[in-house]
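Entry, Tuesday afternoon. Goal for today is a structural model of the target with flavin-adenine dinucleotide bound, before we commit to ordering more compound. Inputs were pasted exactly as handed over by J.K., no edits. I checked the ligand SMILES twice against the vendor sheet because last time a stereocentre got dropped in transcription.
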Amino acid sequence: MDTNLPVSKNPRVVIVGCGFAGLRLAKELRHAPVQVVVIDRNNYHNFQPLLYQVATGALEADSIAYPIRKIFAGQENFFYRMADVQRVEPERNTVVTHIGDIHYDYLVLATGSLTNFFGIESLERNAMQIKSIPNALNLRSFIFQNFEKALLTENPDERQALMNIVVVGGGPTGVEISGSLAEMRKHVLPKDYPELDLQQMQIILVEAGAELLGPMSKKSQQKSKEYLEELGVQIRLNTSIKRYENCRAYYSETEFIPTENLIWAAGVNGAAIPGLPPEIVARNKRINVNQWNRVEGFENVFAIGDVANMVTEDMPRGLPMLAPVAQQQADLLAKNLVRILQGQAPENFKYLNKGVMAIVSRNKAVVDLPKDVHFNGFFGWLTWLFVHLMTLVGFRNKIVAFIDWAFSYFNSDQALRLIIRPFSRRDVKDDRGKKAAEHQTATPEYIPTPPAIQTPVG
Ligand SMILES: Cc1cc2nc3c(=O)[nH]c(=O)nc-3n(C[C@H](O)[C@H](O)[C@H](O)COP(=O)(O)OP(=O)(O)OC[C@H]3O[C@@H](n4cnc5c(N)ncnc54)[C@H](O)[C@@H]3O)c2cc1C
């Protein structure tokens, strides 16, 4: 297949991935004497920090995504191809995609990360993840679908498992989604499901480490725990989920939490693309780069953002996988590519940490700024809202998000609770009959409904 890219007198920079890093780099190269070719398997940029709000019905999926072609309308040196990159062939300066081969003069890998299930096959098969818009929509539908099922069952064990939600991973995503689910339990579910006893519904946040929000300050760790406990979230620290089978999340060989809803937010790996020598791919699948984001051993291949493993003196385990790191690396690489073309030496990257934050619920967020400045509560919440609103891509998205948030705030409601999954007669009828029968047997185990239509993570 021909990718129909025009021939240019300028060198071609191929950027794989239009997340935070790829998007910023392509924009910053708008006046550079290069042809910019962006390849992404999705035709939109996805604002991942707000995925959990889509998953819990607080925001529409469309308000956290933006079409790539629209972002770059009018940028003359920009070309986009929607494709899945399958392999890099550096010896031919080519990437192999499902729509054909694309030649590059400079290659920038900005492919982000993938959920890390630590090789636990039962989790990979049955847990829900939250890395893409289809994941988030699926999660929302699945939880509401399970509530519909909980209304129908006569079996108390099954009802409990259908209503329990286990979130694994006490980082920002796990904390934020647990808080949001607890608000949903308080404000939304009692209105929609008056027939169910919501006291029964447990939201359990499981974390392998000794505290929540590991990389944040002690103050933020304690405050977020306090906020979640006030909302009725059960927190189990120093606990790992070892496997997830038959609606049971096992935290030891024999002990388990019954749940049909297990959300896995316990870690990510770099999304390295095959074709690079294995010795330059770190254990967490991030690609080793130097201080200019140049991939070890290559003159014209770079990696930025989550997929880049840049080790510094103060961060020997690599820079954190955060949007500002991705954007700052993209900014510098845009300058460095021009410097390289002009025969000048590139500059070294230095991460400027502007702070980190996590929201727990309405009026409650924790914020850590440089120089040991911490704040939380209402002011932290306002700061979180402001920063996220400003960083969303597209004016329409900012307005829609603002309206959705204002609506939720003043009505204590989340308007978005449609179940949008393909209707399955098996899920709703036949399987229900089968499950009820299984619950009446001496060993009350039942087979879970497949939790998610697994889509390639983006
Ligand atoms: C739920 C969640 C919440 C988060 N919250 C925060 C937060 O509050 N603050 C913060 O700073 N960071 C947060 N992060 C992390 C942040 O989103 C990442 O650090 C950031 O997205 C990294 O940018 P990136 O460009 O490296 O990768 P991404 O944004 O992941 O973009 C990668 C792109 O590459 C494309 N791609 C991947 N492989 C291929 C392929 N083979 N072929 C074609 N296209 C491909 C994907 O479709 C995607 O568009 C969060 C992440 C998640 C998942």
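The chain has twelve helices and 25 strands.
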